Amino acid sequence: MLPASIIVAGLMISASIIYLVGSKNSPQAEGLPAGSGDDGQLAAVGGGPTEVGARDVILGDTSAPVTVIEYGDFQCPFCARFHSQVGERLRDEYIASGKVKMVFRNFQFLGPESVAAGEAAECAKDQGKFWAFHDAIYAEEIRDGQEHNGNLDREFFLKTAQALGLKVSDFTSCIDSNKYADQISKDQEDASAAGVNSTPTSFVNGRLIKGAVPYEQFKAVVEEELAKK
Predict the structure, then answer these.
(1) Which of 50, 60, 112, 214 could form a Cys-Cys staple with 206, CB 3.0–4.6 A?
(2) Which CATH topology does 21-227 take?
(3) Where exactly are the structural domains of the chain?
(4) Cis-peptide, bond into residue 200, ω within 30° of zero
(5) For residue 199, what are the β-bridge partners?
(6) CB under 8 A, 24+ apart: contacts of 81-85
(7) Is residue 38 over pLDDT 50?
Protein backbone atom coordinates (compact mmCIF):
# COMPACT_ATOMS: atom_id res chain seq x y z
CA MET A 1 0.00 0.00 0.00
CA LEU A 2 2.81 2.43 0.80
CA PRO A 3 4.47 2.31 -2.64
CA ALA A 4 1.06 2.68 -4.30
CA SER A 5 0.20 5.72 -2.17
CA ILE A 6 3.52 7.32 -3.03
CA ILE A 7 2.89 6.80 -6.74
CA VAL A 8 -0.61 8.28 -6.48
CA ALA A 9 0.69 11.29 -4.57
CA GLY A 10 3.38 11.79 -7.19
CA LEU A 11 0.84 11.71 -9.97
CA MET A 12 -1.34 14.25 -8.16
CA ILE A 13 1.59 16.62 -7.77
CA SER A 14 2.76 16.29 -11.37
CA ALA A 15 -0.80 16.85 -12.59
CA SER A 16 -0.82 20.30 -11.02
CA ILE A 17 2.12 21.98 -12.67
CA ILE A 18 2.16 21.97 -16.54
CA TYR A 19 0.02 22.46 -19.60
CA LEU A 20 0.32 19.77 -22.23
CA VAL A 21 -0.20 20.40 -25.93
CA GLY A 22 -3.47 18.90 -27.12
CA SER A 23 -5.11 19.38 -23.73
CA LYS A 24 -5.89 23.07 -23.53
CA ASN A 25 -7.54 22.86 -20.14
CA SER A 26 -5.53 20.06 -18.53
CA PRO A 27 -2.74 21.25 -16.24
CA GLN A 28 -0.02 18.63 -15.89
CA ALA A 29 3.38 20.14 -14.89
CA GLU A 30 5.40 23.42 -14.36
CA GLY A 31 8.44 25.61 -15.24
CA LEU A 32 10.09 29.25 -15.53
CA PRO A 33 10.44 33.17 -15.27
CA ALA A 34 10.38 36.66 -16.91
CA GLY A 35 12.13 40.09 -17.10
CA SER A 36 11.87 43.82 -16.33
CA GLY A 37 12.81 47.09 -17.97
CA ASP A 38 14.40 47.31 -21.38
CA ASP A 39 15.78 44.38 -23.31
CA GLY A 40 19.19 42.87 -23.07
CA GLN A 41 20.59 42.27 -26.53
CA LEU A 42 19.44 40.53 -29.65
CA ALA A 43 21.82 37.64 -30.13
CA ALA A 44 23.07 36.40 -33.47
CA VAL A 45 24.24 32.90 -32.70
CA GLY A 46 23.11 29.38 -33.37
CA GLY A 47 19.55 28.21 -32.88
CA GLY A 48 17.92 25.05 -31.53
CA PRO A 49 16.44 24.40 -28.09
CA THR A 50 19.63 25.02 -26.11
CA GLU A 51 21.38 27.71 -28.16
CA VAL A 52 20.65 31.43 -28.35
CA GLY A 53 19.24 32.34 -31.76
CA ALA A 54 18.93 35.43 -33.94
CA ARG A 55 15.41 36.41 -32.75
CA ASP A 56 16.10 35.73 -29.09
CA VAL A 57 16.37 38.65 -26.67
CA ILE A 58 18.73 38.03 -23.78
CA LEU A 59 17.78 39.21 -20.30
CA GLY A 60 21.03 39.73 -18.41
CA ASP A 61 24.71 39.66 -19.22
CA THR A 62 25.31 38.05 -22.61
CA SER A 63 28.49 36.43 -21.24
CA ALA A 64 26.79 34.89 -18.20
CA PRO A 65 27.96 31.27 -17.74
CA VAL A 66 24.45 29.80 -17.33
CA THR A 67 21.77 30.16 -20.02
CA VAL A 68 18.10 29.61 -19.21
CA ILE A 69 15.77 29.18 -22.19
CA GLU A 70 12.05 29.03 -21.46
CA TYR A 71 9.29 27.97 -23.83
CA GLY A 72 6.00 29.50 -22.69
CA ASP A 73 2.43 30.41 -23.56
CA PHE A 74 1.15 33.80 -22.42
CA GLN A 75 -2.21 32.34 -21.29
CA CYS A 76 -0.68 29.41 -19.43
CA PRO A 77 -1.37 29.88 -15.69
CA PHE A 78 1.66 27.81 -14.77
CA CYS A 79 3.88 30.00 -16.94
CA ALA A 80 2.49 33.00 -15.07
CA ARG A 81 3.19 31.28 -11.77
CA PHE A 82 6.67 30.39 -12.92
CA HIS A 83 7.21 34.03 -13.90
CA SER A 84 6.13 35.34 -10.50
CA GLN A 85 7.51 32.63 -8.21
CA VAL A 86 10.69 31.56 -10.00
CA GLY A 87 11.56 34.22 -12.56
CA GLU A 88 11.46 37.18 -10.23
CA ARG A 89 13.78 35.49 -7.73
CA LEU A 90 16.04 34.24 -10.49
CA ARG A 91 16.49 37.81 -11.70
CA ASP A 92 17.30 39.13 -8.25
CA GLU A 93 19.66 36.35 -7.27
CA TYR A 94 21.39 35.33 -10.50
CA ILE A 95 20.57 37.52 -13.50
CA ALA A 96 21.37 40.83 -11.80
CA SER A 97 24.74 39.46 -10.66
CA GLY A 98 25.72 38.32 -14.16
CA LYS A 99 25.63 34.60 -13.39
CA VAL A 100 22.57 33.75 -15.49
CA LYS A 101 21.13 35.03 -18.75
CA MET A 102 17.63 34.22 -19.87
CA VAL A 103 15.66 33.82 -23.09
CA PHE A 104 11.91 33.40 -23.59
CA ARG A 105 10.53 31.63 -26.65
CA ASN A 106 6.99 31.38 -27.96
CA PHE A 107 5.02 28.18 -27.63
CA GLN A 108 1.62 29.84 -27.99
CA PHE A 109 -0.65 26.81 -28.29
CA LEU A 110 -3.60 27.72 -26.06
CA GLY A 111 -5.54 29.62 -28.70
CA PRO A 112 -5.96 32.92 -30.57
CA GLU A 113 -5.32 35.14 -27.55
CA SER A 114 -2.01 33.42 -26.90
CA VAL A 115 -1.01 33.84 -30.54
CA ALA A 116 -2.05 37.51 -30.55
CA ALA A 117 -0.04 38.13 -27.37
CA GLY A 118 2.97 36.40 -28.88
CA GLU A 119 2.73 38.55 -32.00
CA ALA A 120 2.37 41.73 -29.93
CA ALA A 121 5.44 40.84 -27.85
CA GLU A 122 7.40 40.32 -31.06
CA CYS A 123 6.29 43.80 -32.19
CA ALA A 124 7.49 45.21 -28.87
CA LYS A 125 10.79 43.43 -29.48
CA ASP A 126 11.28 45.58 -32.58
CA GLN A 127 11.41 48.61 -30.28
CA GLY A 128 13.63 47.10 -27.58
CA LYS A 129 10.82 46.45 -25.10
CA PHE A 130 10.26 42.71 -25.32
CA TRP A 131 10.84 41.85 -21.67
CA ALA A 132 8.84 44.80 -20.36
CA PHE A 133 5.94 43.78 -22.63
CA HIS A 134 6.33 40.13 -21.61
CA ASP A 135 6.07 41.13 -17.95
CA ALA A 136 3.01 43.30 -18.58
CA ILE A 137 1.17 40.41 -20.25
CA TYR A 138 1.84 38.06 -17.35
CA ALA A 139 0.89 40.73 -14.82
CA GLU A 140 -2.46 41.04 -16.60
CA GLU A 141 -2.96 37.28 -16.70
CA ILE A 142 -2.12 36.96 -13.00
CA ARG A 143 -4.55 39.79 -12.19
CA ASP A 144 -7.28 38.38 -14.42
CA GLY A 145 -6.81 34.73 -13.49
CA GLN A 146 -8.72 33.34 -16.48
CA GLU A 147 -8.06 31.99 -19.96
CA HIS A 148 -9.94 32.59 -23.21
CA ASN A 149 -11.93 35.54 -21.85
CA GLY A 150 -10.76 38.21 -24.28
CA ASN A 151 -8.58 40.30 -21.97
CA LEU A 152 -5.49 39.89 -24.19
CA ASP A 153 -6.89 42.04 -26.98
CA ARG A 154 -5.85 44.90 -29.24
CA GLU A 155 -6.93 47.52 -26.70
CA PHE A 156 -4.78 45.98 -23.99
CA PHE A 157 -1.78 45.70 -26.31
CA LEU A 158 -2.06 49.36 -27.40
CA LYS A 159 -2.46 50.60 -23.82
CA THR A 160 0.57 48.58 -22.80
CA ALA A 161 2.62 49.88 -25.71
CA GLN A 162 1.76 53.45 -24.78
CA ALA A 163 2.54 52.87 -21.09
CA LEU A 164 5.94 51.43 -22.00
CA GLY A 165 6.83 54.36 -24.22
CA LEU A 166 6.75 52.55 -27.54
CA LYS A 167 6.09 54.42 -30.76
CA VAL A 168 2.43 53.47 -30.86
CA SER A 169 1.89 54.12 -34.57
CA ASP A 170 4.64 51.66 -35.51
CA PHE A 171 3.45 49.14 -32.95
CA THR A 172 -0.15 49.44 -34.17
CA SER A 173 0.91 48.86 -37.76
CA CYS A 174 2.91 45.83 -36.67
CA ILE A 175 0.08 44.09 -34.81
CA ASP A 176 -2.64 45.05 -37.32
CA SER A 177 -0.62 43.60 -40.19
CA ASN A 178 0.06 40.38 -38.27
CA LYS A 179 3.70 40.92 -39.12
CA TYR A 180 4.89 38.10 -36.88
CA ALA A 181 2.15 35.51 -37.47
CA ASP A 182 4.55 33.30 -39.43
CA GLN A 183 7.22 33.75 -36.76
CA ILE A 184 4.89 32.52 -34.01
CA SER A 185 3.98 29.47 -36.11
CA LYS A 186 7.64 28.77 -36.82
CA ASP A 187 8.53 29.11 -33.14
CA GLN A 188 5.94 26.49 -32.24
CA GLU A 189 7.05 24.16 -35.02
CA ASP A 190 10.69 24.49 -33.95
CA ALA A 191 9.76 23.86 -30.33
CA SER A 192 7.74 20.76 -31.22
CA ALA A 193 10.62 19.48 -33.34
CA ALA A 194 12.88 19.92 -30.31
CA GLY A 195 10.54 17.76 -28.22
CA VAL A 196 8.75 20.55 -26.36
CA ASN A 197 5.13 19.55 -25.72
CA SER A 198 4.11 21.50 -22.62
CA THR A 199 4.47 24.87 -20.97
CA PRO A 200 6.49 26.00 -19.28
CA THR A 201 9.46 23.98 -20.50
CA SER A 202 12.94 25.23 -19.64
CA PHE A 203 16.51 24.38 -20.52
CA VAL A 204 19.31 25.30 -18.09
CA ASN A 205 22.54 24.99 -20.05
CA GLY A 206 20.72 22.36 -22.04
CA ARG A 207 19.27 20.49 -19.04
CA LEU A 208 15.53 20.00 -19.42
CA ILE A 209 13.13 21.15 -16.70
CA LYS A 210 9.41 20.63 -17.32
CA GLY A 211 6.82 22.65 -15.49
CA ALA A 212 6.75 25.40 -12.87
CA VAL A 213 8.95 23.61 -10.41
CA PRO A 214 9.58 25.22 -7.00
CA TYR A 215 12.29 27.87 -6.98
CA GLU A 216 14.65 25.89 -4.76
CA GLN A 217 14.52 22.97 -7.17
CA PHE A 218 15.25 25.24 -10.13
CA LYS A 219 18.00 27.00 -8.17
CA ALA A 220 19.70 23.69 -7.41
CA VAL A 221 20.13 23.03 -11.15
CA VAL A 222 21.52 26.54 -11.68
CA GLU A 223 24.01 26.03 -8.85
CA GLU A 224 25.12 22.70 -10.29
CA GLU A 225 25.79 24.38 -13.63
CA LEU A 226 27.67 27.24 -12.00
CA ALA A 227 29.84 24.77 -10.11
CA LYS A 228 31.02 23.34 -13.44
CA LYS A 229 32.44 26.70 -14.55
Answers:
(1) 50
(2) Glutaredoxin (3.40.30)
(3) 21-227
(4) yes
(5) 19
(6) 81/30, 81/212, 82/30, 82/31, 82/32, 82/33, 82/200, 82/212, 83/32, 83/33, 83/34, 83/135, 83/138, 83/142, 84/138, 84/142, 85/212, 85/214, 85/215
(7) no
